[in-house]
Automatic annotation (TrEMBL):
Single GO MF annotation: methylisocitrate lyase activity
Keyword Metal-binding included in the entry's annotation: yes
Function in brief: Catalyzes the thermodynamically favored C-C bond cleavage of (2R,3S)-2-methylisocitrate to yield pyruvate and succinate.
The protein's required cofactors: Mg(2+)
NCBIfam families (alphabetical): prpB (TIGR02317)
Designated name of the protein: Methylisocitrate lyase
Protein's organism: Corynebacterium canis
E.C. number: 4.1.3.30
GO biological process: propionate catabolic process, 2-methylcitrate cycle
Sequence similarity: Belongs to the isocitrate lyase/PEP mutase superfamily. Methylisocitrate lyase family.
Alphabetic keyword roster: Lyase, Magnesium, Metal-binding
Pathway linked to the protein: Organic acid metabolism; propanoate degradation
InterPro entries on file: ICL/PEPM, Isocitrate_lyase_ph_CS, PrpB, Pyrv/PenolPyrv_kinase-like_dom, Pyrv_kinase-like_dom_sf
Length: 298
């Protein structure tokens, strides 16, 4: 019914996957149910996007969500899947001591890792203009605090740099090297534009790399197989499932408002029987019959 795996084992699996030569594909989950669908579809991991957590609360992605909200959603998602879960931890929700607490809270939530970014706090969506990054030494302190707070050596600490769109790719490469030296296990360079940019970054940086294939942003959408051939270790599709779902929800609501019925959407809905499969109703029924039908004899 719930995840039966040990969080430490999932972290080991994630670290091994990053070093396997096979790209780790992590679609974003906006709910635990979506995380379960991601697992059944055969992906290697699940991603929890800060932008999605904010959007689900009807908030823009400008640093308004809290550690409590992000850790709570992450815990809900990690609870229902055997896959490793990577979490967007923004700037660590404050100064270096806050980044340290963030790592502790996310470890307790059962996830496999998180990424911290070098934007000025409060941050902005990585594919918007007007971003600003902190000096390298400030981000190194942020990462150092996060690494020092880690209790499980296999918990992945990923450093995200937003410098490419502000200071240029060469500056982002310099930052990536400094962040790896500070203890980052994985580097995430936001808003690279072309396949050539991704190739340049891979050739310059030895640390495992994560690519962000988000829609409607600055990056060319490159297939996972191509990213793997370039040498990338992981790819996220952070907002894809939310955008698909909300696109369908808005279209359906418009038709229902116009026609007064959902009949035209029946064939496009997830069937009740499939929902029950994802919810694992049968397992709950067995649990209920075997345990909660017990009656103490008088």
């Amino acid at each position: 019914m719930f995840s039966s795996g040990d969080a430490r084992e999932r972290r080991k699996a994630f670290r091994a996957g990053l070093n396997s030569g096979k790209i780790q594909r992590l679609p974003g989950a906006f709910s635990p149910l979506v995380a379960r669908a991601i697992a059944e579809a055969g992906f290697e991991g699940v991603y929890v996007s800060g932008a999605v957590v904010a959007a689900d609360l009807a908030l823009p992605d400008i640093g308004l969500t809290t550690l409590t909200e992000v850790a709570g959603r992450s815990r809900q998602i990690a609870r229902v899947t055997e896959l490793p879960v990577l979490v967007d931890a923004d700037t660590g929700f404050g100064e270096p001591m806050s980044a340290a607490r963030t790592v502790s809270e996310l470890e307790d939530a059962g996830v496999a890792g998180c990424h911290l970014e070098d934007q000025v706090n409060p941050k902005r969506c990585g594919h918007l203009d007007g971003k600003a990054v902190v000096p390298i030494e400030d981000m190194v302190r942020r990462l150092g605090a996060a690494v020092s707070a880690r209790r499980d050596e296999n918990f992945i600490i990923c450093a995200r740099t937003d410098a490419a769109g502000i200071e240029g790719i060469d500056a982002a490469i310099d930052r990536a090297k400094a962040y790896a030296e500070a203890g980052a296990d994985l580097i995430f360079t936001e808003a690279l534009r072309t396949e050539a940019d991704f190739e340049k970054f891979r050739q310059a940086v030895d640390t495992p790399l994560l690519a962000n294939m988000t829609e409607f942003g600055k990056s060319e959408l490159i297939p996972a197989q191509t990213l793997e051939s370039i040498g990338y270790n992981a790819v996220i599709f952070p907002v894809t499932t939310l955008r698909i779902a909300m696109g369908q929800v808005e279209a359906a609501l418009e038709e229902i408002a116009e026609t007064g019925t959902q009949t035209g959407w029946i064939d496009r809905m997830q069937h009740r029987s499939r929902l029950y499969e994802l919810l694992r109703y049968s397992e709950f029924n067995v649990f209920d019959q075997e345990i909660f039908t017990y009656r103490k004899e008088n």
